[in-house]
Design goal:
Blueprint: H1 2-16, H2 28-35, H3 39-51, E1 55-58, E2 62-65, H4 70-75, H5 84-108, H6 111-120, H7 129-150, H8 153-157, H9 159-170, H10 176-194, H11 198-211
Antiparallel strand pairs: 1-2
Helix pairs in contact: 1-3, 2-3, 5-7, 5-9, 5-11, 6-10, 7-9, 7-10, 10-11
Length: about 220
């Protein structure tokens, strides 16, 4: 617990002194004296910050602050999602969040971006299991495109946790019928966006998310 507290103090030091990406922190010796702790305990705190992607250290370069990348922190949660209850709550989060993401994308999308989305969905899917594989890849590409257009790096950082994670969960249970239904819904969403009917696009998105409800999720 003491190492965790010291790690928090180091992060507060970075914030308070506005040490940006690439900026150098004081030496281990100076930090240990500053916080009144032993060098082994300080190294434990620094190691926890390295694991979180906050800092890095190399010989002769010292301790430096790393750029903040939301996805690195959020993707680290994926291996810890193990139970049906956790998956259900994560799916619930996606259904709460993604309509807002769509509204944001609708405000920021250029006509060219909407044309590109429509073009992506134009190619026919193959038949059988090949349709499932191709359709699932296109589903991920479609949703990630919306999240990218939204233009918010925290939203974009969630794509692994809320888009790719569920694609991997569903990959073994999807049928060709469900994939084709989802693909048609994607086209309807883009048509509504191009027509300026955002609320219809949101309704279609909510229906689309129901297509990929995790097995056993009754929420």
């Amino acid at each position: 617990m003491r190492a965790k507290a010291v790690a928090g103090e180091i992060q507060e030091l970075i914030r308070r002194e506005r040490i940006g990406p690439g900026g150098r922190l004081p030496s281990e010796h100076a930090l240990a004296r500053r916080f009144g702790v032993s060098r082994p305990l300080l190294r434990e705190a620094i190691q926890s910050l390295k694991t979180l992607g906050v800092v890095d250290s190399r010989p002769r370069r010292g301790l430096r602050v790393l750029p903040f990348e939301p996805e690195a922190h959020l993707d680290a949660m994926i291996p810890r999602i193990r139970t049906d209850e956790e998956r259900a709550e994560l799916y619930e989060l996606r259904r709460l969040l993604e309509p807002g993401v769509l509204r944001l994308a609708a405000r920021r999308a250029s006509p060219l971006q909407l044309q590109a989305l429509e073009a992506m969905l134009r190619a026919p899917l193959p038949r059988g299991r090949a349709a499932v594989r191709a359709g699932l890849e296109r589903d991920v590409e479609f949703h990630e495109a919306l999240w990218r257009i939204a233009g918010n790096r925290f939203v974009w950082g969630l794509r692994g946790l809320l888009v790719r994670y569920f694609a991997s969960v569903e990959s073994g249970t999807l049928t060709e019928r469900r994939i084709r239904k989802a693909d048609a819904e994607h086209r309807a969403i883009v048509r509504a966006l191009r027509a300026g009917d955002v609320e219809r696009a949101v309704r279609m998105l909510q229906r689309n998310l129901g297509t990929f409800r995790p097995e056993g999720n009754g929420r």
